[in-house]
Amino acid sequence: KGSISGNNILDIKPDDKGNIWIGTWGNGVNVMDLATKKFKVFKHDPANLNSLSGDNIYAIAQPPDKKIWLGSFGDGLNLYQPETNTFAHFKNVEKDPKSLGSDRINSLLSDSKGNLWIGTDDAGLNLFVARTNSFVRFPHNDHTNSISSNTVLDLFEDHSGNIWICTLSGLNKFDPNTHHFTVFKTKDGLP
């Protein structure tokens, strides 16, 4: 295909095969082969259960295991299956605490240990546990040490392995070893 499927670009990431993955609003994900400059487009197809789960792709990640993960806003998490050009889906299942906390994904982070972290729009931070295909949730809780907001906008790992989390209610530092959150707000010197 000759061009990108839409102009509203939400995320862009390279993969290990010389491609650029481009997440769009309303037009799925585009994969540009940098050598040929050709595009492959993946969109949701209601008639195909193995197609992309939704067309609003906010976040893209490729952990060291070389898998491609796509976070959609409203339709959960997608894992690309290159052998078949299809996708496995991970969604929120009501009353299942080991499912994805929300289908509204804002950000993804593959950390230095190969973990996949998911920042959601309304369920805080989630961690994918590969060996069980399940999730650990870290939501906001007024009564315990927790993330300051359930709206996670972006994620970053520092050189010490801490996960820094941008939220609608301050900046959070999360220690993955102790599960302790440190919250920074304007009273702590944030502008």
Averaged pLDDT: 96
Amino- and carboxy-terminal Cα gap: 45 Å
Based on secondary structure, the structural category is mainly beta
Rg estimate, integer Å = 17 Å
> Which of globular, elongated, flat, extended, rod-shaped describes the shape?
globular
Largest sheet: 4 strands, antiparallel
Note the run of SSEs as H and E: EEEEEEEEEEEEEEEE
Number of helices: 0
Low-pLDDT residue spans: none
Residue share in helices?
A: under 10%
Strand order across the biggest sheet? 1-2-3-4
Give a description of the structure:
The structure is a single chain. By secondary structure, the protein is mainly β. Helix content is 0%, strand content 43%. The strands form four sheets. Strands 1-2-3-4 form a four-stranded antiparallel beta sheet, with no helix packed on it. A four-stranded antiparallel beta sheet has the order 5-6-7-8, with no helix packed on it. The protein has a four-stranded antiparallel beta sheet with strand order 9-10-11-12, with no helix packed on it. The radius of gyration is 17 Å and the shape is globular. The mean pLDDT is 96.
